[in-house]
Design a protein that fits this description.
Helix 1 (about 190-205) crosses helix 2, helix 5 packs parallel to helix 6 and helix 7 crosses helix 9. The chain has about 500 residues and is α+β, with helices and mostly antiparallel strands. Helix content is about 25%, strand content about 20%. The strands form six sheets. It has a six-stranded antiparallel beta sheet, with helices on one face. Strands 9-8-10-11-14 form a five-stranded mixed beta sheet, with no helix packed on it. The longest helix is centred in the last third of the chain and has 15 residues, at about 390-400. The protein has helices at about 190-205, 220-230, 250-255, 270-275, 295-300, 335-340, 360-365, 375-380, 390-400, 415-425, 450-460, 460-470, 475-485; strands spanning about 5-10, 35-40, 45-50, 55, 60, 70-75, 85-90, 95, 105, 115-120, 125-130, 135-140, 140-145, 145, 150-155, 160, 210, 235-240, 280-285, 305, 315, 320-325, 345. The protein is elongated and about 105 Å long.
Length: about 500
């Protein structure tokens, strides 16, 4: 098999004969010209159109373009790093303490040349530890060479998290609208910045809005921010659709007139009228009673309501914002109503997918500037937060009430379930690294890996290395210069 794989698309000629089919562009199959056939690497297909004519067509598979990725530093002893983003855009990047690194990290527990990012042919990135004594950790697990498919990267005492740009489909936004500060939306990840921009974009328009996202991500917070940015003078009226009894749903939403049914002793204003000039927020809209759905659709279409017992409809000026954890897929929810609710669709991801927001959220809701141990910080970042922002707020406020002294926060004060989950991640089995060879190369020279292993075993003591390996100390210094290794990196190896 050759180095460059290829894929061949073929269309069988119609049995009845006729003109030869036009050539098919790579990656596209025209089904109306016959039955498409996909053949494997380096195979060649002959397409016979007559007894004396044949063609051979072949296309090479091009490498996948590298997908832009970025990492955001959330903490580092290097005061210039927190808040800074590292953009992975197809280049090879070396991270370390040396000034010749692509990204310099002035952290004493980071080696001169600590690790490297390299783009791979499938459009992703590989990260490789360059023999650092303190190691490189991805999602709490030490790694030597692996794909960058995790969220939390730790080098020494410097913490980085994935911070990719969300799609326009998830958070529709106009480039002409800035990302002005919205006080209720805490965080500085690219997702939160895009969410602010999305809210400001949608706020300037008309039409209903559907906000999707798992429990606890802040769908109502986003809806309130949207209402505040819209400039509507009316109130923000939240309604939990799951809590409205089916038999009272129409009266609760549309209101009623005196005498319209037994017990209606006075006029009552419904949710629609209460939200006049403002925003009606329908939380858990998927639980809306079936009998009410066509009536809500009518409100969305012509902006009129007719209270129970009223003789004539009346116009209303409201904006409807609905929220649901997932798109209502059950057959009882009208698809035309779902489409009408989603003039704008905003999808807020889970907190585990935007970990750059975890530390700002913690500082905001914990309300304390007490220092944090590295293990505590790492546990916050590694925890998946199944109840998202709501769960983080509960934990932060609970610890603020329980801890009265100003001692630094350690991992021991976190709830058991968080510490157990983080410990489980750190204990994940890893593939065994390739064996280190100490066999000489050339005139007794060790491999780079062999010299690193010797430095680790002797904790950077060159005299001990020379004695144990029967090497001359001056020669050891030459090898250190050759492999660009610093014995000081191995003299105070941190334990994790």
């Amino acid at each position: 098999m050759g180095r460059n794989p290829c894929v061949i698309f073929m269309t069988r000629a119609p049995k009845s004969g006729g003109p030869r089919p036009a050539s098919i562009p790579f990656g596209k199959i025209e089904r109306n010209r016959g039955e498409p056939v996909l053949l494997t690497t380096r195979q060649v297909v002959q397409e016979t159109t007559s007894e004396n004519e044949s063609t051979v067509r072949q296309q090479r598979v091009r490498p996948s373009p590298v997908r832009p990725t970025s990492l955001r530093c959330v903490y580092s002893p290097d005061s210039s790093l927190p808040g800074r983003r590292i953009h992975l855009d197809g280049r090879r990047l070396i991270l370390g303490r040396s000034s010749d690194c692509t990204v310099q990290i002035m952290d004493r527990e980071v080696s001169r040349h600590h690790m490297v990012f390299e783009p791979s042919s499938d459009g992703t990135y590989m990260l490789e530890d360059l023999g650092s004594p303190n190691g490189t950790f991805l999602d709490g697990t030490p790694c030597r060479r692996t794909r960058l498919d995790g969220q939390v990267l730790v080098l020494g005492r410097s913490f980085f998290v994935r911070d990719d740009e969300p799609s326009l489909d998830a958070l529709p936004r106009s480039p002409l609208v800035g990302s002005a500060e919205l006080p209720t939306l805490v965080g500085n990840s690219r997702t939160t910045l895009a969410l602010r921009q999305c809210i400001l974009t949608v706020a300037q328009t008309e039409g209903s809005v559907l906000i999707q996202g798992p429990t606890g991500v802040g769908k109502e917070v986003a809806a309130r921010a949207l209402h505040a940015a819209s400039g509507r003078r009316g109130p923000f009226i939240p309604v939990n659709c799951a809590a409205v009894p089916n038999e009272l749903a129409e009266a609760e939403f549309f209101g009623y007139r005196k005498g319209s049914f037994t017990g209606a002793e006075r006029d009552a204003v419904g949710y629609f009228e209460r939200a006049e000039g403002g925003t009606l927020f329908l939380d858990e809209v998927g639980d809306l009673p079936l009998a009410l759905q066509p009536k809500l659709l009518r409100v969305l279409e012509d902006h009129t309501i007719e209270p129970l017992g009223s003789a004539s409809p009346r116009k209303i000026d409201i904006r409807i914002v609905a929220a649901t954890q997932v798109p209502p897929a059950h057959s009882l929810f009208r698809k035309d109503l779902l489409a009408r609710l989603g003039d704008w669709v905003i999808r807020i991801p889970a907190l585990a997918e935007r970990r750059a927001d975890i530390i700002p959220l913690w500082l905001h809701y914990h309300g304390s500037k007490r220092p944090m141990h590295a293990e505590f910080l790492e546990a916050l970042l590694l925890h998946d937060w199944p109840t998202n922002v709501r769960g983080l707020i509960q934990t932060a406020r609970k610890l603020r009430a329980l801890l009265t002294s100003d001692v630094a926060l350690s991992a021991e004060v976190l709830p058991d379930h968080i510490r157990e989950e983080v410990a489980g991640k750190r204990a994940k089995p890893q593939p065994m690294p390739p064996p280190v060879e100490l066999r000489p190369q050339g005139e007794g020279a060790p491999t780079r890996e062999g010299l690193i292993e010797a430095l680790r075993a002797a904790r950077g003591n060159l005299k001990k290395i020379a004695r144990d390996r029967n090497w001359h100390r001056n020669q050891v210094y030459r090898w250190l210069r050759k492999y660009e290794l610093d014995p000081n990196d191995y003299r105070a190896t941190a334990t994790r």
